[in-house]
Amino acid sequence: MSTDGWKNFGKYGAADDPENRHGKIVLARALEDALERMIIEGGIKSPVTTRRGLTARMKYLTTTQGGAQAMADAGITAVPKTISAWTKGKQHPLPANLDAIDTAYWNLRAANILNNPGAFKQHLNNAGKGTRVEIHPINQDVVDEPRRRDNLRLRTLQVRYVWDEAVDAMVAGDIGKLEEIWDDVIADLDSDWGAYTYVRHIGLGA
After folding, report:
1. Residue 105: pLDDT over 70
2. CA-wise closest residue to 100 among 174, 31, 48, 47
3. Which residues touch 180 (CB under 8 Å, ≥6 apart)?
């Protein structure tokens, strides 16, 4: 199949595997996965069931803008006196409230990072070194055998300069911009770059 043939993606069966998708869609998912890792890995490690974990979460929720709303959204209805007692370690929340505190903490942390994506951009830019991108080609088992390509394989690129725009596009839900960015990324492959317009998986080493 020629590069132009990929404009007719699905004509020969590739669309029969739902994991075979346009790179812009898979890139958006990869960015979301990388953001989730950053949120979790940079967050409080101690479980909410420990005194340290509870105290750290309560301190974050009571000193960070939006914390009160995050607790309310998580279903916490405790009065300020009780919340203060939880924060100071003078009273231990019931299990349902512990779960709600944990939910409120992670939701607020995620919201703050999304609202201020500069740290995520810096993470991906990696001081100008960029981020390693693993490109997994489509599953060809569903493609008509005469139309399968024998040269598709896992490709790895060190990608720079696109991450600020990519993060902005992810936050805005701008799939059109993500398509432009994906075209820029795969343009660094060889003359067969068009074969990676549609892929099965994109892994970000960040």
Report:
1. yes
2. 48
3. none
- State residue 192 phi and psi, 5-degree precision: -95, 20
Query: Is pLDDT larger for residue 197 or for residue 52?
Result: 52
Mean pLDDT of 167-178: 95
Token output for 125: 């830019």
Tell me which residue of 119, 126, 121, 131 sits closest to 43, measured CA to CA.
119
133 by Cβ neighbours in 10 Å (0-12 / 13-18 / 19+) ranks as: buried
Residues comprising the chain, all counted: 206
Q: Residue 135: is it exposed, middle or buried by C-beta count within 10 angstroms (0-12/13-18/19+)? A: buried
pLDDT at 174: 97
Q: Are 131 and 13 in contact (CB under 8 A)?
A: no
